[in-house]
Amino acid sequence: MSRQVEAWQLRAEFAAALSRMYGAEVPAYTTLVEVAAAVNRDHAAQSSDAERLGSLDRVTAERHGAIRVGSPRELADVADLFAAFGMYPVGFYDLRDAASPVPVVSTAFRPADADELARNPFRVFTSMLATADARFFPDELRRRVERFVDARELFDPALIAEARRIAADGGADRQRAERFVAAAVSAFALSRAPIDRGWYRELSAVSAVAADIAGVTSTHINHLTPRVLDIDELYRRMTERGITMIDAIQGPPRTAGPAVLLRQTSFRALAEPRRFRDPDGTVREDTLRVRFGEVEARGVALTRDGRARYDAVMAEPDPAAVWDRYFPGTDAEFAAQGLAYYRGGDPAKPVVYEDFLPASAAGIFRSNLDAETQAADADDTADYSMGWMASRIGHHINDPYELYEKAAQ
């Protein structure tokens, strides 16, 4: 009998296989990974505390992905699939009320346990189309979108059934594991099936993200994100290579004090060939710009008090100019004031922020689109919340603050 492949090993193999597939589909992503690895090596060589937020091996291997689905049923399938990889829903993100609104609500699937994160911290930020929000979807359009989504099948039922069995077993033998990982990866490959041009165009008028979710009969990896130790240096090197980056790095400004939460940037979404079906039935080649290459730098996780200060400083016209009015300059002061999480309260042992920032996510989505989403002047009577989402997908959604508290203790 072959040795059992545990959930964390399945997760590592899944992340690596997705990375290979995405690199083949989006070659500029491979460049991004190469530059990130070079920046990490150089930063580690120059900085004595480069590994305080994770070993060089972990940081260089680290990825997060992003996918989009259209309904609670599809999100429930995602939850069952990722549970086989030891990835569970953490947090609830509402991107509808961001400065650049996106008609989705989201959660992130990731390991919840500190030891599992250390083994392989793969995360997938997963967004679901908020069709119940009348500001984006008037009744008649909502009915047509939901009918379209209900009629499709994103995931083979046999794949989801196998995922449930593997989750219950805590792993699989080698042969079974290889089949499962390959099938899971193929579920997120970019489809070559023709897209209904009229339907896609109608949804694009609501939001390019809505079209990407409900204008096609499949899902795909929207972006895959390596982690870097110096995101400003990466931005500079990518630009030097002639790759067009978005205008800014999202999240907190660079400061002289401890890095907090999450900073993200990306290269601009590339025009990729896709096939479209015209009203007369003719299938033609065209292009779409929906997939991009994101990169992230992670800092220490903030407590609720620290997060309240962060939200306040980010509301200022120039957060960098007033940062030190809100935050101290050392980890010792962060720990003493209860602003961030440290293992055992030791300022030398920061708890890494493992989650996401809705304003940053919405900002990157927006910066890679050709048109802004405009919410209509209508009442939002939708009942989207963490509790609502948990009840619809049949999985407990973890509170990230509870997980950080546990990790600190």
TrEMBL record:
Family label: Belongs to the 2-oxoadipate dioxygenase/decarboxylase family.
Top-level lineage group: Bacteria
Cofactors demanded by this protein: Fe(2+)
Enzyme type, top EC level: oxidoreductase
Keyword Iron recorded: yes
EC number, as in UniProt: 1.13.11.93
Keywords attached to this entry: Dioxygenase, Iron, Oxidoreductase
InterPro entries listed in its UniProt record: HGLS, YdcJ_bac-like
Originating species: Mycolicibacterium flavescens (Mycobacterium flavescens)
Protein's name in the database: 2-oxoadipate dioxygenase/decarboxylase
A molecular function GO annotation: dioxygenase activity
